[in-house]
Amino acid sequence: MDAYIGKMLDGRYEILEVIGTGGMAIVYKAMDHRLNRQVAVKVLKNDLAQNADFRRRFHDEAQAVAMLSHPNIVSVYDVSHDGDAEYIVMELIDGITLKQYMERRGQLNWREALHFITQIMKGLGHAHSRGIIHRDIKPHNIMILRDGSVKVADFGIACLVASAENTLTQEALGSVHYISPEQAKGGHTDARTDIYSAGVVLYEMLTDRLPFEGDSAVSIAIQHISSVPLSPREINPDIPEALELITMKAMAPDMEKRYPSAEAMLRDLDEFRKNPSINFDYVLSDFAVEETSEPTQHLNASEMNEVHPHYARPQRREPRDNRYDPRGNYEDEYDEYDEREHRRRRNKRSKGPMIATIAAAVVVIVILFSMILSSFAGGGQAEFVIPKVVGMTVEEAMADEEISEKYTIETIGSEFSDEYDKDVIIEQSPEDGRTKKGPKGEKYVIQVTVSLGEQTDEMPDLTDYNQTSAISTLKNMSLDLNIIQEEAYDDEIPAGTVISTDPVKGTTLKKGDTVTIVFSKGKEVKPVTVINYVGMTLAKAQEQSGGLIIQIKEVESDSEAGTVIDQDIASGSQVEEGTTITLTVSKGPAQPVEKTITKSIALPEGEGTVKVRVVVGGSDVQFDSDVDRALMEISIPLTGSGTQIVSVYFDGTLSYNEEVTFS
């Protein structure tokens, strides 16, 4: 059994069961006993927790995702550690992955694919606006909820744009079917990297096929770089042409031809949704692979042996039994068509890698030769006094003839700035005033960073957040917010949980703004002074409970029924509101219990009969009859309670009175 099952993390999260396992962590279903809700807890694997680099990456993931708050992204509630356990607490999703959904459904209807991709792009657009690239978009990381909504999950190798690494990580190779060309080449990654992977997901939803397949991760990665897949409509003619164009533009191998942002792709998706017959101002041929001398990562000998023209062919999945192809042909007929199509494409492309290699070699030789000539020629270098472009926009700088004549402006990044308006240059390299040398006749490149304008964000919804999570969420917004914490009593919201925020959710926040959070202190406990209830009627005592809970104990007494005769908390005592007090209430005097005894009565002497009359308590005649004197004595039953006077009469005359106890 898993060592964490049944364990309580930080005295709050009870681990219930394993619900998923990844490369770095195990995901458990858990119960949050403080907020009484089920959550998902991702715990870093024990063998990795000992490695400082893995711990760093694990916390980087948590910090990245904690910055995000969007209905199409899985929420993070808490980040902590308990002993050796490093863990993240996340929203528990009641649903399945898009991969599982596609395996069950097969090829999706294009309307359903449109519904899913729109939500995926909304989630990615939110992440990109906060400087976060997912870098591992695939159906396995997309959750489909029961209501059909979508949430992007597992920012496992997400990174801040400013610190993106130009490396083909092991995690990326594990997702090679969805990897972008720039990731495969170890190049620069940005938001367009996620757009490419999302395009592959859309392609798979529409066609029930992956664009590229092969026998190894390397061979598939090479296809992403050097090949173009079959267009979706060649596989499924029912796909609208405009949706095919959107898919292929998202998957353009050249980043410059791809959608520049998730918002741009969403605009086309929305236009298509409104009018499926829309004509866009681009065509499929715009996204063809161009020959380039751009270097890629070096492959070792064993990897090179795997590179074969065969892998340039998009591989088809195993056919389902009796499946009918949209062209009207059965699978075996389609195989023949696919082979002909493949041969046509392979013959067209097979020379591409060789030409690109030769071109790269020629460029290198030319550059080296030029450098050698320059070293001998003397005077081949020109001096450039770097002008100041900080404070201008790139357009303004290039509109200045003195600058544009000698210099080229290259934008290498963007940052938020309180000092400069959006699109204004805030940094330049080299700095202005410096003298630099460069080849005569060529323009000197000035690299610049431009302003994104003042950083803003939306006030997140902190409902149900505890104090730690709420403060962490606001601090991770990187706005240097002035956070004021207040407390208030609340009968419904548990202590330590957010009651309200000022400003409310959705409000635009700027750097340095003040945010006030009101946390619950739980239900307010008020002191109560106990009064004297003795002598009151029960009804009056209940009216004057004063916040106490009255419990009643009834007893027999000489006091009038319904009267309080005692209380278990003395009057004048200070107790908390809601304390239980027991009042003793009279049921009235005890009721007498009647009993029957046998009484012997001696008869007067003589002959004949005598009339015997027996009276109990002065009025209760219990015997009145003629009796033969010869009996001398009779025994009669008498009934009464307590001690009473029994009177005996013979022939109407009182003979005697006797005190009798009925017990």
Protein traits:
663 residues; alpha+beta; six-stranded antiparallel β-sheet; four-stranded antiparallel β-sheet; 18 helices; 32 strands
Structure report:
The chain is an alpha+beta fold. Helices cover 28% and strands 28% of the residues. The chain contains 18 helices and 32 strands. The strands form eleven sheets. A six-stranded antiparallel beta sheet has the order 1-2-3-4-6-5. A four-stranded antiparallel beta sheet has the order 29-28-31-32, with no helix packed on it. A hairpin with a 3-residue loop joins strand 2 and strand 3. The two termini are 73 Å apart. Mean pLDDT is 81; it is low at 157-174 and 292-379.
Give the secondary structure arrangement, pairings included.
Layout: E1 8-9, E2 13-21, E3 25-32, E4 37-44, H1 46-49, H2 52-66, E5 76-82, E6 85-90, E7 95-97, H3 98-105, H4 110-129, E8 132-133, E9 142-145, E10 150-152, E11 159-160, H5 170-174, H6 181-184, H7 191-207, H8 217-226, H9 232-235, H10 241-250, H11 262-274, H12 301-304, H13 331-349, H14 352-377, E12 381-385, H15 394-399, H16 401-404, E13 407-415, E14 425-429, E15 435-439, E16 444-451, E17 456-458, H17 467-475, E18 482-488, E19 498-502, E20 508-510, E21 514-520, E22 527-529, H18 538-543, E23 549-555, E24 564-567, E25 574-576, E26 580-586, E27 595-602, E28 609-616, E29 620-628, E30 633-640, E31 642-650, E32 653-662
Parallel strand pairs: 13-16, 18-21, 23-26
Antiparallel strand pairs: 1-2, 2-3, 3-4, 4-6, 5-6, 7-9, 8-11, 9-10, 12-15, 14-16, 17-20, 19-21, 22-25, 24-26, 27-30, 28-29, 28-31, 31-32
Helix pairs in contact: 4-7, 4-11, 7-10, 10-11
